[in-house]
C-alpha cells in the first residue's frame, strides 16, 4: 500500500538530542503555577504489554529508565503509590543526591519528596522500609473508618490523612488529590500499582503518562500497567518520544493544558 493510500504521514524516530540532565529536566517539567494537583504516572511495559516480569517491574528497566525514574522523583512534590506496590517492590523513602536536592531547593521544594501510601485499611507493618529507611515520614492516605486507629498505630511513623468522601470505608481519588493540594503537594508522581493508575484514569484525574517501552517480550499472564473494573477512554497528546542505544522508547503523553482544572 502506497504512502498516499495509507492516508497518514509517518516520521522516523531519531535518537534523543540534548539528553543531558538540564535538557531532560526541561522536557519533564511540570506546568507552571499549579493551583490543583497535576498527576503524572511513570510506568514501564514490555513490547507485548507486560507490566512485570517475575511479578515485579524492575526486571524490565534499563539504565535510561532508571535515570528518568530518578529525574521524575526529583521533580515531584510527592510520590504516590498503592500499599500493594510498597510491599511488592519493597519501597523505601526517596533517595536523592546533593545536586538533586539543590535543584529542588532552587524550585522552592523540600529537599526530598515524601512517599504517599494509598491504602483503604491502613494495615501496614512497622518493619516496612518505607518507614524505617527514609529521611522523612511517609503520608498515609486512607479511609475515614481506618484513619482514627491508623493515627494511633502509626504514630511517629507516618502522617495519616482521611481521604474518604461519601463512603467512609473507601479512599476517594478526588478527596485524595484535594488533600495533597491542601498540603501544597501539587506536582504528583504515581509509580503504581496498576489498580491505583486505573483509579486515577476512571476518575479522569490522570494528567500525564510517562511510559517506558522495554525491548522485551514476556508472554505469560503478566498484568498491564493499569487495572480497573471501569473502562474509560481519555485522549492524550504526545509530548515526546525518546530512545537510547539499548532500544528503549521513553514516551510522554499528557492532556492538553487547557483541559486541566486549575
Protein architecture, described:
It is globular and about 55 Å long. It has a domain at 42-51 and 76-248: Dihydrofolate Reductase, subunit A, CATH 3.40.430. The model has no long low-confidence stretch (mean pLDDT 91). It contains nine helices and nine strands. By secondary structure, it is of the alpha/beta class. Helix content is 27%, strand content 20%. A nine-stranded mixed sheet has the order 5-4-3-2-6-1-7-9-8, sandwiched between helices.
Q: What is the CATH class of one domain?
A: Alpha Beta
Number of strands: 9
In CATH terms, the superfamily of one domain is: Dihydrofolate Reductase, subunit A
User: How many DSSP H or I helices?
Assistant: 9
Query: What's the alpha carbon Rg, rounded to whole Å?
Result: 19 Å
Order of helices and strands: HHEHEHHEHEHEHEHEEE
How do the strands of the widest beta sheet line up side by side? 5-4-3-2-6-1-7-9-8
Structural class: alpha/beta
Quaternary assembly: single chain
- What does the overall shape look like? globular
What is the architecture of one domain at the second tier of CATH?
A: 3-Layer(aba) Sandwich
Kindly estimate the percentage of residues that lie in beta strands according to DSSP: 15-25%
Which runs of at least 5 residues are low in confidence (pLDDT < 50)? none
Main sheet record: 9 strands, mixed
Assign the CATH topology of one domain: Dihydrofolate Reductase, subunit A
Terminal Cα span: 46 Å
Keywords: NADP, Oxidoreductase
GO molecular function: 5-amino-6-(5-phosphoribosylamino)uracil reductase activity
Protein name: Riboflavin biosynthesis pyrimidine reductase
Pathway: Cofactor biosynthesis; riboflavin biosynthesis
Amino acid at each position: 500500500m502506497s504512502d498516499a493510500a495509507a492516508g497518514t504521514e509517518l516520521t522516523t524516530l531519531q535518537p534523543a538530542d540534548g539528553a543531558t540532565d538540564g535538557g531532560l529536566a526541561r522536557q519533564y517539567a511540570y506546568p507552571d503555577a499549579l493551583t490543583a494537583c497535576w498527576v503524572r504516572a511513570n510506568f514501564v511495559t514490555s513490547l507485548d504489554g507486560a507490566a512485570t516480569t517475575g511479578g515485579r517491574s524492575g526486571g524490565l528497566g534499563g539504565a535510561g529508565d532508571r535515570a528518568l525514574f530518578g529525574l521524575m522523583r526529583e521533580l515531584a512534590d510527592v510520590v504516590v503509590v498503592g500499599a500493594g506496590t510498597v510491599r511488592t517492590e519493597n519501597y523505601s523513602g526517596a533517595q536523592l543526591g546533593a545536586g538533586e536536592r539543590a535543584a529542588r531547593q532552587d524550585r522552592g521544594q523540600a529537599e526530598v519528596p515524601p512517599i504517599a501510601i494509598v491504602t483503604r485499611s491502613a494495615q501496614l507493618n512497622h518493619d516496612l522500609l518505607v518507614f524505617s529507611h527514609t529521611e522523612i515520614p511517609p503520608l498515609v492516605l486512607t479511609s475515614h473508618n481506618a484513619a482514627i486507629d491508623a493515627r494511633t498505630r502509626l504514630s511517629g511513623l507516618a502522617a495519616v490523612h482521611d481521604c474518604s468522601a461519601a463512603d467512609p470505608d473507601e479512599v476517594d481519588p478526588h478527596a485524595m488529590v484535594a488533600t495533597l493540594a491542601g498540603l501544597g503537594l501539587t506536582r504528583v508522581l504515581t509509580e503504581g500499582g496498576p489498580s491505583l493508575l486505573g483509579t486515577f484514569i476512571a476518575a479522569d484525574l490522570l494528567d500525564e503518562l510517562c511510559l517506558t517501552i522495554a525491548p522485551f517480550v514476556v508472554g505469560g499472564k503478566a498484568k498491564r500497567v493499569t487495572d480497573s473494573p471501569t473502562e474509560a477512554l481519555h485522549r492524550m497528546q504526545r509530548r515526546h518520544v525518546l530512545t537510547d542505544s539499548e532500544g528503549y522508547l521513553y514516551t510522554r503523553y499528557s492532556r492538553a493544558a487547557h483541559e486541566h482544572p486549575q
